[in-house]
Amino acid sequence: MADELTRLAEYHGVATHYDDWRGRAVTVAPDTLVAVLAALGVDASSPAGVRDALERERAREDALPPTLVVRRGDGSATGPVLAELRRYLGQGEDAEVEIEICGGEPSGPGFEPLAQRVDVPSGWHRLRVRRLRDRHPVHVQLLVAPAALGPPPRAWGFTAQLYSVRSRASWGLGDLRDLADLAAWSGRTLGAGFVLVNPLHATEPVPPVGPSPYSPASRRFPSPLYLRVEDMPEYAALPADDRERFAATAAELRAGTGPLDRDAVWAAKLAAFETMYRARRDAPDTAFEEFRRREGPALARFATWCAISEEQGTSDWRRWPSALRRAGDHAVVDDPSRHARARFHEWLQWRLDGQLAAAQRAALDAGMAVGIVHDLAVGVPHGSADTWADESLYAPGISVGAPPDEFNQRGQDWGQRPWRPDALARGGYAPFRELAAAALRHAGGIRLDHAMQVSRLWWVPEGASPADGTYVRYDRDALLGCLTWEAERFGAVVVGEDLGTVEQGLRDELTKRGVFGTSLLWFERDGSGRPKPAERWREASLATVGTHDMPPISGFVHGDHIDLRDRLGLLTRPRADEEEDHRRTLSGWLDVLHEEGLLDAAPDEVMQALADGSTAYDERIVTALHDFLTRTPARLVGISLADAVGERRTQNQPGTTDEYPNWRVPLADADGTPVLLEDLEARALNLFSRAPK
């Protein structure tokens, strides 16, 4: 059965072996293959089941794909579309191929012969293919995508965890007005070209509100937590006593100390939202109705999920009564009692759309070349709004994660349910297209967290160790086609976070398609393990020093991450070994900075000062490292706002939940004193000794 199981797995894009982070070949256990195939709707639990499944696959070998993606070249796209179709037709087989133009130009009289068209415009269309052996024509969705995105102008910008960037006007968490003000200040005063923020995806509408922006309730819609209450048009119309009451509540939230409290902020903002909504509920608004039409059924389902979550006291639909667990069931659709509450949540999304647009306008008005760059998380939890809206898109009994690597030697289980690649293809990749379009509508770019999601994901069967998972392949060409088409439509840049275990060829493919990678200074090494020279860095990348899963520069150089992991019991080898590796990494970079003339102090002198706990060289190291980034060819350079103010604490410590206040660390300086948005001009360190070009 082993050989047949292997063939069946390969039919479905399930890896039967892979190379680990050390380059060693690993064979995937049969139990893992059986479990992953089951999640794809394939019974491989017995030899007979495997044989039957193989027969079904062989019978479908010459079937036309549900979705066809063709990259536009220099000339007409008609020829490439026909050539791509011939790959699926039998040898010498003729077929009548017609096309219905659905995007790029007005719809004509319906289907017309494809071969007679001079060109096929970019965008989505429908093909109708008639083969002699088929009783009925086959319909195929067609995307003509750009060959590659054009490069953005060379620029630098801040990277920020928006919730942590508070002001004297926000309600205890950074919000969209703070984002607009950060973009306006950094663009106009410092010449920044962009601001990259964490995912602003929707959170739970009932407490507890999850702190991680990378584990959202929905990736399709943003979180009302980021609304600036006073900027909503309805606020000015409230009676004075209401406004005074809310101002007092906001002041209390601003006065809070310690970790950020999303539950308290949400409770306060929700009370304000409800008061404003009651005051305007009966007022007709054509703009609101147009927004509802634009967003369509996806908005209605999300808003209904919010309403039921409030009604049931939990946002995990798996804990709801069985009659409410499917978005299309009668108990959900036919109950008018929650329609009014769902409309309230639609209104919140409308107001979010307006404030997101205002943030991007502020960035562009300040002279930014790119503007706001939004982050796109890799997935959603099992009981989320997105899985409830259409559970058939998601693989049951599977979580996304990562195999063991140098930094997480036990592997990772992110508790997120993956899309089924076959379901995506059948639906013309509509969920992914809508997701990308929503993120790009009011942005100059998006960052794709875990860029490998466009090519393969690590699937972990329920109850198994993360080390006992395997890779499942997605149609890279189709997903990249969707992504680049949406980015081209909006004139946006796309950055892929291609760190960690990256399959061979993916980085080259991203570059070829105009999708930028991510170059992380601490990880950029040559073949001998030394820091990679500046001239050898990638041009098509966003270059940064660190990431949100690491401490800021000042914390890193002092080894704070080793102290923290040791204290939490997360070290997988002796602390002395960790410290020796850290000293080697740090010493190597100090040598480079000194040799490049970016750091005047002798590396040995700096190392000794750090060993003694001295902070005398911290600011100079921060400046030197950022100066180094400007010497690389990277077209985009990202500067963490935490580094700019001397923060030492990490935002997230992988491998922990409540042991560390992940995603709840307010922006502060090296002494832990909070830094507000209004303080940045006076408190930010000297980021560069010379302006980046």
UniProtKB/TrEMBL annotation:
GO molecular function: 4-alpha-glucanotransferase activity
Top-rank EC class of the record's enzyme: transferase
SUPFAM superfamilies: (Trans)glycosidases
Catalytic function, reaction form: Transfers a segment of a (1->4)-alpha-D-glucan to a new position in an acceptor, which may be glucose or a (1->4)-alpha-D-glucan
Domain of life: Bacteria
GO biological process: carbohydrate metabolic process
Pfam annotation, one family: Glyco_hydro_77
InterPro entries: GH, Glyco_hydro_77
Matching NCBIfam families: malQ
Family per similarity comment: Belongs to the disproportionating enzyme family.
Protein name as it appears in the record: 4-alpha-glucanotransferase
Organism, scientific name: Actinomadura syzygii
Taxonomic path: Bacteria, Bacillati, Actinomycetota, Actinomycetes, Streptosporangiales
Name of the gene: malQ
